[in-house]
Amino acid sequence: MFATLPVTALRTFEAAARLRSFKLAAAELSVTPTAVSHQIKALERHVGCALFDRVPRGVRLTDKGARLFAGVHGALLDVAQTLDALRPEPVSGALTVSTTHSFAALWLVPRLGRFHQACPQYQLRLDAAADTVDLLQDASVDVAIRYSSQRYPALHAACTLPEWFGVYGAPAQVALAGRRAPALVTVRWRDSDLYDQGWQAWCQAAGLPAWRRPVSEHAYEEEHYALQAAIAGQGLVLASSVMVSDSVAAGTLAPYRPQVQVPGSAYTALCAPGRERHPPVRAFLAWLRKEFQAGQRGSLPGSAGRQASLGKTRQL
């Protein structure tokens, strides 16, 4: 049945496609780049089409190559998992999740206790960093939770948590803001203009074009720092409904003019095609999907929030 399958060529193809380099694939497989090239050419003859486009810094999958990679990667992952399950002590009970420092600190970590309670057999390692992880090339990361308006057609999108933006502060600061110009807390993203544009969009939606002239302004590099500053009474902050959800529930932050909301984008859980079938990843994504659904039910925006758009993109 499988006598004519070019197994070696398929394994070579999977490594080259995932690493986007014949040289890196050769190093992983302990063969020469020439051997990798020969295997890829043989596979292309076997399927009757080109699988890679050669580019200056490596190779790029063609459309048919991407289709083959999705199938081969998932199939080899299934085989690896089956072999691991046959061992007396399986070694695949761990997964690595990549996201930003702010999302980890303000949303994910406070909820992870429920995942550990539901799935104590799995060990989760959190990789919090600002840089985007290439899930097709970096096999050490199982799942990435990214915030972006972009689509990722080459990846498996498991679940999504949308957000909207509003202005929040400590309850005492929110009460004062109705009587005088408040101090503001701001976040300096990599593109700081995006945060300023968000404030402008909120002020426009609120009908307060001149309100963005605070008596003082405090800037922080990370969103979780800015929210802690707002909780401490340093001023009002423009913040994501996702990031402030726990603080609002605890009463340490309150919305200022809650009827005014600026649409944001969404957090999406992504993995390489086929990786979603890996038992720890499957369990984590199922748990995350329920948490995302609960988050949506707990912080649905009102209709007034559709007056302006934040228009930013933060990639994880």
TrEMBL record:
Belongs to the LysR transcriptional regulatory family. It comes from the Bacteria. PANTHER family: GLYCINE CLEAVAGE SYSTEM TRANSCRIPTIONAL ACTIVATOR, HTH-TYPE TRANSCRIPTIONAL REGULATOR. It comes from Achromobacter arsenitoxydans SY8. This is LysR family transcriptional regulator. InterPro entries: LysR-type_TF_proteobact-type, LysR_HTH_N, LysR_subst-bd, WH-like_DNA-bd_sf, WH_DNA-bd_sf. GO terms for molecular function: DNA-binding transcription factor activity; sequence-specific DNA binding. Residues 5-62 form the HTH lysR-type domain. Residues 296-316 are annotated as: Disordered.
